[in-house]
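Field reference: sequence -> structure
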Amino acid sequence: MAASLELHWFKSSYSGGSGTECVECAYTSGNAFIRDSKWGEGSVIHVQPGTWHVFIGALAQDALK
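Structure field:
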């Protein structure tokens, strides 16, 4: 990730309510970024937005079962 890229992180609505399973996300026009909110300076993964939406859709479908 480019050092000059400033991401605007938000806590995912899919994070656990206990505060122990917090995921933060940030979007750019070309990527979705995901990190552990308890370790903000740690590793960040990034995927194409379409891939991220498919993943979130699968989580939503599983939650409906």
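Note: DSSP finds one helix and four strands in the chain.
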